[in-house]
Amino acid sequence: MSQPFRLAAGGLIDRGRPLSFRFEGRDYRGYAGDTLASALLANGVRLVGRSFKYHRPRGILGFGPEESNALMQLGTGARAAPNLRATEIRLHDGLEAKAVNCWPNVRFDVGGVNNLLSRFLAAGFYYKTFMWPHWHVYEGVIRRAAGLGKAPKAADPDRYENRFAHCDVLVVGSGPAGLAAARAAAGTGQRVILAEQDHVLGGRLRWDGGEIDGLAADRWADEAIAALGAMPNVRILPNTAVTGYFDHDALAMIEAVSGDDPAAPAQLPRYRQWQVRAGRVVLAAGAIERPLVFPGNDRPGVMLASAVRHYLARYGVRAGNRAVIFTNNDEAYRTAIAFHAAGGTVAAVVDTRADVDPAVAASVETLGIRLLRGASVVATRGAKALRDVAVRRADGGTLRLACDLLAMSGGSNPNVGLFSQSGGRLAFDEQLTAFRPAQSVQNERSVGAAAGLRTLDEALASGHAAGAGDGAAPRATDAHPAAEITACWRIDAPGKAFVDMQNDVSADDIGLAARESYRSVEHLKRYTTLGMASDQGKTSNVNALAIMAGLTGQGIAETGTTRFRFPFVPVALGAFAGRAHGELLRPLRRLALHDRHVALGAIMEDYGWLRPSAYPRAGETRFEAEQREARAVRDGVGIFDGSPLGKIEVRGPDAARLLDFIYASTMSTLKVGKVRYGLMLNELGVVIDDGVCARLGEDHFLVGASSAGADRIAAWLEEWLQCEFVDHDVLVAPVTTSWSVVTLTGPHARDLLAEAGASFPLGPEAFPHMSFQEGMVAGIEARVMRVSYTGETSYEINVPTGRTAELWDVLMRLGGRYGLTPIGIDAWNLLRLEKGYLHIGADTDGTTTPLNIGWDHVLRRKGDFVGKRSLMLALHRDPARLQFVGLRAEGTEPLPIGAHLVRGKGADRASDGFVTSSAYSPVFGRGVALALVHGGTGRIGETVALEHDGRRLTATIAQPTLYDPEGARLNG
Amino acid sequence: MLQISCPWCGPRDEIEFRCGGQSHVIRPGPPEEVDDATWGRYLSEKINPRGDHLERWLHAAGCRRWFNVARDTATHRIRAVYHMVEAAPAIGDEGSAR
Amino acid sequence: MRYSAWTVFRQGLGGQRGWKPAWRSPDPKPDYEVIIIGGGGHGLATAYYLAKTYGIRRVAVLEKGWIGGGNSGRNTTAIRSNYYYRASARMYEHSLKLYEGLSKELNYNVMFSQRGMISLAHSPHDVELAHRQAGAMRLNGVDADFLSPGEIARRVPILDMSPEARFPVFGGLLQKRAGTARHDAVVWGYARAADALGVDIIQNCEVTGFRRGADGAVIGVETSRGPIAATRIGVAVAGHSSRLAEMAGFRLPITSYALQAFVSEPLKPVLDTVILSPATGVYMSQSDKGGLVIGGGLDLYPSYAQRGNMPVIRNVLGAVAAQYPSLGRVRLLRQWAGIVDVVPDSSPIIGASPVPGLFLDCGWGTGGFKAIPVGGTMLAHQLATLTPHELAEPFSLERFTTGALIDEAAGSGIAH
């Protein structure tokens, strides 16, 4: 239970709150404030993962999102989370983790056999083999071997949230530059959001020493954070990584709220995704250290030098007892000093540079630490943890140094990911040996280490300036000088030197890619998979392209980088959904009468609105209900909720002119009080909707649209009006949801309506088919249309939506004696099908023109209308075009919808049309169907063969209208 | 995410808008006097520039008004927003841009 | 050099030192018999078939960046021929058949993985449309199976099949022979095979203009690496077709849009097919490496920026988390975008342009990857014989005058 690598004091951890956790089946202890990575290091756990391809043993490399080795399967069951980095997992009591991609465990991993075969498994080897006899023979095994963690099997039980925010200044990162920027901006009253991916604010101030305005760096950070926290115009978000920089200064952030801690309050979401619109953005995201590329650089115990310092200061964890420091720059010397100060032994500092600044050299040599100038580590040993390293001295001789920790530093890369996402251009800085922001496109400024600035003082000054505040910038009063660096991209020595640890891409793989012509950085990435692992190349990209530049003889700047992509750190898919699950994924629309339909036992289905499909009674099937409802309409009276029907008021002196253009039929000749059916086309001549248009007054029309077309057609009218007919004096007002529609249909419809009480005459002369009345029905203001979709006498009663239930209840109460029956969509469809009425979207598709459905007369209409010119094209008059007809099936069974008529034989077999609507007709005692058939109008009476799902069927082409072709019942 | 300044409502996020494509398209007519090729070009042909594009947008989840936008299709920068009846601004006019 | 298990073994023993370049990096010659603009899959396949089928080897492929850097390397790698219209079905089926033999043809493993593709039906109406689609596919000679909800649950256990699901599943249409392939490998395979036949692949060579003869016909191109002459020029530059047309003085019925795509962190296998939900427009497959590869709708405004914005990202990935509830904790690794040619009827434009000597292979919208072999076949035929390939005839530019559009989504009622 001891933590052998935990120092007696120090670190931002709560030693009063010990926590237990389990890793790979073994129990350990840590403290509140630890990450899983720091706790594992404190316990001396070195082997924490296996690489993707060769399953090589790996240890912790870094301390943040750059970590490429320590990938965890966190938790179990529905709350398991795959591929989390140990460096980003906040430790909680009872935490359970396992390394991904190893079996049976990380210590003994069967996949390790790949490492023995690694000489045959070079970059891209799979493109050159596995072709005989077939890729499928190999693919299954490869798929099972690939992949890292496991997705849970059960639904994710956690909650996620989305939030929008606006601010004047978004500061990304709370290190010295970020804090200085936030302080300066907040001081002038600007709305500031300060986002920090770590759970502790302060960034480098927490672990890299220095003194600011006379205070120790972390004290200064405490004071700055406290001051910001007290300001109402500042929002501080720890645990929040900024993941994306989109157009017009819109950024995405992911806030880890519950931290996967079961002790967190249940109402907290797991993650909260923020979308921020910022006035301007300060990018203070710091820098990430690069590994050095030398043989054996992937052994557990080889870490980034900055990470070693970080674990010492932040967690009081010394990552080893005896360390070798390997560097090409001055900064890593600080690791030697800190490690020594923490009681560790520094076996040597191995510096690739022959010339080291005397003051820098003295800083370690005065501590008695051996400095090897012009030297390189050329090999490491140790099966599952580092045991010793081989060093090649400047004189060519080698020596072995026993050690359990190798802290390496190859320089640092500014975090330019967000800058690059914003569209900004990068430049390679030879002095820095890294890419830094060069040319800005959006309203952002990079500061501090993210801008390639190397000292604390520069970070503070650049942050303060970007914050655009008053007063003087904070000053570093005891800071390190700028660290000097001499580029060293690869140690020339035999053995596997890794560039991308997670994906097992070695320096030799880059050489192979170069030899085989995959030299562009994108080809290199795609051929070797370099930089495509879950760390997205944070530690590997620059090393790789520098090595490639060396091989091709091009400069690094010319070689360029691959593009940085959203997201900067991986984001759980659940966070994108937020609360948009189930009904909130796409909100459902409910009718005013929803509860009444449900009470009547309706099957409610989504037709854009939740609508009753049928009202089956106890013991009745859906089909039986449909048949009963349809018969009730033919024999008595049915009641139908048609509320979703589109209703658009079109009003003004030019209303008739506009509608003449929008409809394929003339509407200006319609008499006041009359109703006319019309088709609407698009400019291709395709039918986009149909419906009835009522003329309420000389300048006042009520345009009816299909339920599906209600919104679309209102928008369509507006578009023409606003974009083409800007001189028309017309107002278009969609009123679909203001009015609900209750339709009475059947031979007794008039009697029932009369009994309910109408303020206008109902007789067939005063109120004939295709006319309109406005008045009172059952004491409710109403607009009533005599139109019919069933073939029976029908009244579409429009009442204000708030009074729909009142009308429905009156009609249902009075309707008993007429056998009033609620009608669902199924029966409604069947009734119109018997009548041969078109259903847009079922009997038509996105290619159907009026000339396919027997409306050839529209071509004779004078004047222009939408789509007319297209209909004049020769191909629309082709006699073999699809035409709308009826089909009579042989036998009683209805034809399946979607079945094709088939013509030709063998390879020439082709579709001759297809069934668009079909049902069993209780009136005719057999199936009735509608179809689009090639040249169908001229083929009435012809027997045709159909196919459906391998079945063969026969039918006869007929007129579409089967029921009451004379319309006697309709007009009665 | 684009931020578009609706001439009536002010700056709003792109989710409130719908892009209606190239603006200032002249509809040929009357139909009897238009040949097939001219009609086909009206229906399908696009300028589709890489750079400054004059396009019409609808504030669909707002005032439901159409208006014109001059936007760079390579950078997504909006150079100008103007009414349907206005002439296109000359390149170099800096309107309410973001 | 021939790729095989044996050479991989031998090179392994020899420290991988003996591999030869997959293609040369020649300087452009002053003139060629044929120039192909665009070093993506379509352009390289065209060059390969010109050399192989028609013996025309004095061919240059001019690529402004690196080969495969456009949509060939930015798509979601789905290959299918589940089309409604005969013209489309024949063309895409031809392509699929070429894909079935492509690894051996090119001696490069393109990893064509026929794991099938399922298009879900979310309502009884969708089921009817799916049956109509299936019937058309069978009549077009393409395999089609209608799957019951039970069969879908068995094949795709991560899909929410509950009746309470916002978009419940009533069935689905399966094309068994559909699948995915490794997109870069298709590009590299064609490049290597074309290079071996003598084709010059010239990268970092941007075309800046056309040279025209007195009769208006093309006689060459201006490039960032100097003028190059040829009297037959093919253009296969998805996303940028309008720009090349502008240089040649005509306009196309094309608008460029950004299409985003997404990949998750690698997972052990959870999805063994390509699956599309028409209700949300989201489709998904799992790569051999383990990442879930996800695509959805376009960012709906013209764009040449290879980036996308949050509304589409949230729509697509939010729908994945909602429709596949066990994937909520799986993390998005990377997003990217390509620029696609969108044509009013969403079908390609193949064949003659208004300028003599200049031929088009464009307008593939979001589906050009699956058409690489057939696109190359058709453009090569056109360039070699100066007549349209039989499969390409319905897809000429003429159709926008005659009105003979081939709109799959409109015709089948199912969004593609």
Automatic annotation (TrEMBL), chain A:
Transmembrane stretches, by residue range?
A: none
Q: Pfam families in the record, alphabetically? A: Fer2_4, GCV_T, GCV_T_C, Pyr_redox_2, SO_alpha_A3
GO biological process terms on file: tetrahydrofolate metabolic process
Q: Which residues form the FAD/NAD(P)-binding domain?
A: 168-423
Q: Which Gene3D superfamilies match?
A: 2Fe-2S iron-sulphur cluster binding domain, sarcosine oxidase, alpha subunit, N-terminal domain, BFD-like [2Fe-2S]-binding domain, FAD/NAD(P)-binding domain, Probable tRNA modification gtpase trme, domain 1
Q: What family does this chain come from, according to its entry?
A: Belongs to the GcvT family.
Which NCBIfam families does the record match to this protein? soxA
Specify the protein name.
Sarcosine oxidase subunit alpha
TrEMBL record, chain B:
Q: Name one GO molecular function term.
A: sarcosine oxidase activity
Which Pfam families does the entry mention? Answer: SoxD (PF04267)
User: In its UniProt record, which GO terms are filed under biological process?
Assistant: tetrahydrofolate metabolic process
| Domain of life of the native organism | Bacteria
Q: Kindly provide the name given to this protein in its UniProt entry.
A: Sarcosine oxidase subunit delta
UniProtKB/TrEMBL annotation, chain C:
Alphabetic keyword roster: Cytoplasm, FAD, Flavoprotein, FMN, Nucleotide-binding, Oxidoreductase
> Which GO molecular-function terms appear in the entry?
nucleotide binding; sarcosine oxidase activity
Q: Which PROSITE patterns match?
A: RHODANESE_3
Against Pfam families, the record matches this protein to: DAO
Subcellular location(s) of the protein: Cytoplasm
What reaction gets catalysed by this protein?
Answer: sarcosine + O2 + H2O = formaldehyde + glycine + H2O2; sarcosine + (6S)-5,6,7,8-tetrahydrofolate + O2 = (6R)-5,10-methylene-5,6,7,8-tetrahydrofolate + glycine + H2O2
Chief subcellular location equals cytoplasm
Its cofactor is: FAD; FMN
A GO BP term, please? Answer: tetrahydrofolate metabolic process
Tell me where the signal peptide lies: none
EC no. given is: 1.5.3.24
Entry GO CC: cytoplasm
Give the top-level enzyme category.
oxidoreductase
- What family does this chain come from, according to its entry? Belongs to the SoxB family.
The protein's name in its UniProt record: Sarcosine oxidase subunit beta
Q: Please give the organism.
A: Rhizorhabdus histidinilytica
Upper taxonomic lineage: Bacteria, Pseudomonadati, Pseudomonadota, Alphaproteobacteria, Sphingomonadales
